[in-house]
Design a protein that fits this description.
Length: 371
């Protein structure tokens, strides 16, 4: 597994950012890593775009800068498919791991890791956001545009997030990771609305397609420790990937998961299959010439992304849902990420009419109950 402290070989910091306490903390925690002061982020983008593999090189560099816009945004989901009304907090972008299927290598303009260090602005924006939505339950988290805990040993953000959200009882806050970086979390008192989540795949897919990420069995052990501390946990089987032997391999992961995790501690499990924008296929082929995951027969979905034919997705989903329910029955909330109403109805016997109904179900509100 990658250790960010040793992975980072160069730090860039925007002029004026030394005034932020988080920037000073990170520089101290990173010790003797060379620091270069820049005037603008574009300098870094231009520098790294000259490399043969900007994304790969960027995983060894970190840019510290303030975010001038909004920290909080609706999860972009994907057009024409059902979302879940999730909100994301964009504190850190990119991560030191290098998953072949990662959309960030196509989605983000800047290939280096970025930490936004103006945390006072973050708390002010969160205060306004929560007050604006005080009449409803909110699901919000980090981990969409960068792993929530990959840099946590340097930023210690998890401790601040837990302290902030533990009193926000109408908010479910999620930290989503592939790492084992839970030391800061294990030092904190748990709260029922704080959820620590792991992305899971089969062991062979983790080994072949998730470069720098820990073994899946180790992620489950990290989740066990967090659950034992008293936190709720969640899991994301996304992307599910077709290959010879996939069904038994996913079953093995789910067997291991429920041998260690109490179903009552699971806030939710999300399920999604491999999908990506067409241009990403070319980039994956270039960066990961040995991968085979992009060569399954696919169709262009309603959102323009390549994805498995519906019958193949249904087959994938049925196996996962059957395996999970053999342990947790219908007590573990399951939901689909970026899927159609038809898939919901066919696999989960539910047909939420909107992303608000999905949100209500996952927030344990009465409008949309598990069947």
């Amino acid at each position: 597994m990658i250790k960010p402290h040793t992975q980072i070989k160069r730090i860039f910091i925007e002029k004026g950012s030394f005034k932020y306490p988080l920037a000073r903390k990170m520089l101290k925690n990173l010790g003797s890593v060379p620091v270069e002061v820049i005037s603008d982020e574009e300098e870094v983008i231009e520098k790294y775009n000259q490399f043969k593999d900007p994304v790969g090189e960027g995983k060894r560099a970190l840019l510290l800068k303030p975010l001038k816009g909004d920290f909080i945004k609706p999860c972009p989901c994907t057009p024409h498919y059902l979302g879940c009304n999730y909100y994301i907090i964009n504190t850190d972008l990119n991560c030191p791991m290098d998953c072949s299927y990662c959309i960030l290598q196509h989605y983000l303009d800047n290939p280096v890791m970025v930490s936004h260090v103006n945390t006072d602005d973050l708390w002010e924006q969160l205060d306004r956001f929560i007050f604006k939505h005080k009449s409803r339950f909110i699901r919000i988290g980090t981990g969409e545009l960068g792993d929530s805990l990959a840099l946590d040993g340097i930023t210690e953000r998890s401790k601040e997030f837990i302290a902030y959200f533990r009193e926000k009882t109408k908010v479910n806050f999620e930290l989503k990771t592939k790492t084992l970086n839970t030391d800061n979390i294990l030092c904190e008192e748990p709260a029922d609305n704080i959820i620590i989540a792991w992305s899971l795949n089969t062991e062979i897919m983790a080994e072949k397609e998730e470069k720098g990420a820990p073994a899946v069995k180790d992620r489950i052990e990290a989740a066990f420790e967090v659950q034992s501390r008293g936190f709720r946990v969640a899991f994301h089987f996304d992307p599910l990937i077709l290959y010879e032997g996939w069904a038994q391999d996913y079953r093995n992961v789910i067997d291991r998961l429920f041998s260690r995790i109490d179903p009552s501690a699971i806030a939710w499990i999300s399920i999604g299959s491999l999908r990506f924008p067409k241009p990403l296929k070319t980039l994956i082929r270039k960066r990961f010439p040995l991968t085979k995951i992009i060569y399954e027969e696919m169709i262009t979905g309603k959102d323009g992304k390549l994805r498995y034919f519906k019958p193949l997705r249904v087959k994938l989903y049925r196996e996962i849902v059957r395996a999970v329910r053999s342990y947790g029955g219908k007590k573990v909330p399951l939901y689909f990420c970026m899927e159609s109403n038809e898939i919901w109805r066919e696999i989960l016997d539910k047909e939420p009419g909107s992303k608000e109904e999905v949100e209500a179900f996952l927030s344990l509100l009465p409008r949309f109950k598990a069947t």
